[in-house]
Specification:
By secondary structure, the protein is mainly β. It has no helices and 13 strands. The strands form 4 sheets. Strands 4, 7, 8, 9, 12 and 13 form a 6-stranded mixed sheet that branches. It starts with 17 loop residues before the first strand and ends with a strand. About 4% of the residues have low confidence.
Length: 137
Amino acid sequence: MNRPPFRKSKERPENLPVCSAVVLCAAVRHGGTTLDLVAVRAGFHVEVLPTPVDPFFVYYQLSCAEGKFAIDARFYKSGASRAIAKSKKQTVRLADNLDVQIGWTKMPYFLLRSTGEYDMVVFANGYDGGRSHVLVR
């Protein structure tokens, strides 16, 4: 599988968080000390193309870094360098390398124009922090 050429001209800085979870879901419910991810999905089944994709959430878990980071999520056709959809940026702060922060961001409505392999990528300061493979059939 080809990966998009993110920030190819620059080396990835050492102090960027690792994104150890990228999960697509219909809703995130916060219940005190727990989170419920509702209608988790690994892909999309389409009857007709193009097909609209309603807004959904991307849950992520960040760790192994220290500082303040601009986080956003982007949906790509595998191998493409241009995102089909992009979330708004959020700021996440990690106190130290042992800190773990969880969060979620909302993806906007967009159109899927073809079936195949896609990537849901979480970015930290504009660099690929972690991804999830998404299959559209």
